[in-house]
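Lab notes, practical 5.
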Amino acid sequence: MKKLFALLLCLVLMIPVLAAAETEITLWTYPIGNWTNAETVDGIIAEFNKVHPEIKVTVQYLDYTSGDDQVTTAIEAGTTPDIIMEGPERLVTNWGAAGKMLDLSDLWTDEALADITATSAAVVAACKSADGKFYEYPLCMTTHCMTINKTAFEAAGAMQYLNEETRTWTTEGFVNALRALAENGTTPVTGIVYCGGQGGDQGTRALVNNLYSGKFTNEDHTAYTADSEENIKALTLLQDLVNEGVLTADPAIVAGDEIALFCNGTAAMSFCWNASAAASNKASLAEGVESFPMAFPSDDGVPELCGGIWGFGLFDNGSDEKAAAAKEFVKFVCDDAAQGPKSVYATGFFPVRSSFGDVYAGTEKAENADFAVFMPYLGDYYNVTGGWATQRTEWWNLLQRVFAGGDVAAEVATYTTNANASIVK
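Output from the prediction step:
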């Protein structure tokens, strides 16, 4: 009896010890592919718990309508999550710069740095603050491109003006293709520079910047530079092409409308495309429309594309124990040889680690692999610049004024003045 009592006493004494061994952490995630799907995320956590059963992960799902307000409220109340999944705009430029995030430099091992740099040095730069701290550990990325109707291009003899293997073309080739398409008349219009709002503005920015290798901001992302000689030259070219009648500008539509006009065969190209757009619009392609994704044309034939980068940041909640547990979760999700590719697959985007290779081969998303050719073309991740929301409005207003016949240099000067005035110094 005494032995039984002693055994029960030992078990009772062990309960607090066992309970104390479990660390609870919270993950908040913005809507990034299937990371909004509880079944998918629960499955990832279940795999993590096979390795780390002592760490309990609770998830909250955010959207882009109220998510920022929820995070702001949590910061003010001191109830921020341990982990948050998003991109450099928020993790680095916003919350990191405000001193709310933990430096994740220890996760950036030499091996990780080399693996990610092999995919894109721009990813590494975007995850790091001006003072050298890493506030984001990335999982996936994508680049935005454009697409052409290969059927229309073939009919006009315009395929000769692009490189089908690398999916690149020069500014000269682009102009020649527009003229060939317009002369052939296979489609009602060649392409449309949409400027009815900010929807899909990454497409028009990339079009302008690439034509003569212009930059959208300065190198340290403290000023907008649309008033450069290269960008003025590019906007002037587009204005001239519209006046010539081989290109269209429409102040009444945004990217979604332009995509629909491409899909129904009205336009021979779309300036707003990526793997996600291809998947969601596949069933909408009219007979005779064959989408052939392309990089934006550039004077030197080497494009610099806009893109997205998504990964994880850790809020500084004052607990070394929780921070250590959170880092274990991030490392498992992003770095594990088996889980990492599955984590990327759930986003629908592409791995930042070159060692992961093609995560879509042999799957129902196999067509996504067609867009991997664009990953090395990711350009400067300039959308971490301050005053971003104001700049977006100023951009489409600029395009409207230019294509209404405004003087390009004068209109660009107005844009640059207003956009730069919105940057909080």
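Observations recorded by the TA: Residues 145-304+386-421 form a domain with the D-Maltodextrin-Binding Protein; domain 2 fold (CATH 3.40.190.10). Residues 11 and 128 are 48 Å apart (CA to CA).
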